[in-house]
Amino acid sequence: MNIILSIMKKELKTYFNSPIAYVVIGVFLLVSGWFVSTNLFIIGVCDLRVFFQIAPLIFMFFAPAITMRLISEERKTGTIELLVTMPIRDSQIIIGKFLAAVILLATALLFTAPFGLILMFLGDIDHGPFIGGYIGLLLMGSAYLAIGVLGSSLTENQVVAFIVGLAISFIFFMFDKISIYIPAFLSSILQYFAIDFHFENIARGVIDSRNVIYYLTLIVVMLSASVAVLEGRKQ
Amino acid sequence: MIQIDKLSKYYGYVKAVDDITFSVNKGEIVGFLGPNGAGKTTTMKVITCYMLPSSGKVTVDNLDVVEHSLEVRKKIGYMPESAPLYTDLNVVEYLKLVAELRGVPKEKRNQRAKQMIEVCALGEMIHKRVGALSKGYRQRLCLAQALIHDPEILILDEPTVGLDPNQIIEIRSLIKELGREKTVILSTHILSEVESTCGRIIIINRGKIVADGRTEDIVAGFSGSSLITMEFALPTPEATIAIRNLDRVASVREIGYVAGGGWQIRIETRDNIDLRYDLFRMAAENQWHLLELHRESASLEEVFQILTKENAESSLN
After folding, report:
1. Angle at A28 between CA A24 and CA A31, to 5 degrees
2. B48 in contact with chain A, both atoms CB, cutoff 8 A
3. Which domains are present in chain B?
4. How many structural domains does chain A have?
5. pLDDT tens, B40-65?
6. CA dihedral B275, B276, B280, B282 (to 10 degrees)
7. Least confident of A3-7, B26-30, B46-50, B225-229
8. CB pairs under 8 A between A and B
9. Residue B80 forms contact with A (CB below 8 Å)
10. Does the structure's ipTM exceed the value 0.90?
11. Is the CB of A84 less than 8 angstroms away from the CB of B102?
């Protein structure tokens, strides 16, 4: 556990010592702020629904941007060689790095809280969907980040890592959007695999264990795959 | 301390290390020598648990690198080729991070980091970002991180590559110093490096060990002849003739007068034997005016060339 925390702290230091964290948080606020404010000022609707609707798409681009350097950079500079020859497990490395990315994402989300507070002040906002929405965002965002970690572990090129992360995320994003092309019985199964399907449920304010389990499973599968890829060097 | 038994390592179909066996005892400084791509780094990567062996067994302190990987890693300090470091931390932060990951107890981390800064002479650089360090300091910092947990074994992959001559000498003397308490394996393709630092060398070529032993023994064992130079005060052609008639002499060449010296002849022996005493006796009996008598064996360079070339040729056939 200490090892995981040490790695997490190191990655956070790297994020906040470099422009990465500030660019990611800044641009995220800019984009999400745009959707919240158009909704409020132009359409005149006082809730976060539009923001929550667009979030799965925004995350699809932001998550791999956060995670792309995590492992690929270590592979490129060779520091991975030192890291994996220390008396620590590969899984500790992956989890530590993943947690750092989650904290960065959570920080970005925290800065969007004023949007909610302003809306609460201006109108009568429903607390259930608001809280549920944020829990859902964090869960879904973490799942996207886990996918991004896998992308990063596959290559030593950060751009490739970004694209691979984006591509896998896109597949999970599309599962419930291709239902018109496939038989009905399949589409309900595929829908279950879709990354934003579960988020929509949570964002309605209903936290169902099935949805939570989906995200946790996705995270575990993606991180395990990353560990397996990292261990592949040994062969 | 380190036992390597019939180790082979393949990359796909390419055999990088081919059935090598050797062991390193506690307190030895072993120089791992070979041309580029000979399998030095691969062997080190297996010992440090970066990679698994394709076949064979590697144990460190009787612990298998596959089954007891974590325990083995605790005993080893590793400095990979090209000294990879986290460039966005400063020197102290970096050393503390490594100490943390290496499991140095919290209360000792500061002290260890300070000691390493002292040992590796990083004092002026402590608040610099690692990315801003010069090559020499990076190399030292990488050595410092390998030492921070006070390991019993040090594995150094080309520790002096890219350094200027003064830095090379510093690093070498540091390694020598460390070798008093620790077991060190260092790889290099600079021959003078092993001659000056290592008690024992292992020459590896195309994945196979071609020589293993003390430097002097290897040189003696593999050179077919030795050269003896005799210098006389006056030209002594009768000496040339007399020595040429000796059994174990392959050839005698008259060099003549050399600048600032006497008249020289050079004698090549058939085997790597020392004829100096016999030659001295001859000179004394015949009353030649002998000024100098000295013997050169083949150098490590020559032996290295012979060993690595022969193998390259034989594997082509």
Report:
1. 145
2. yes
3. 2-221 (3.40.50.300), 224-296 (3.30.70.2190)
4. 1
5. 999 999 999 999 999 999 999 999 99
6. 10
7. B225-229
8. 66
9. yes
10. no
11. no
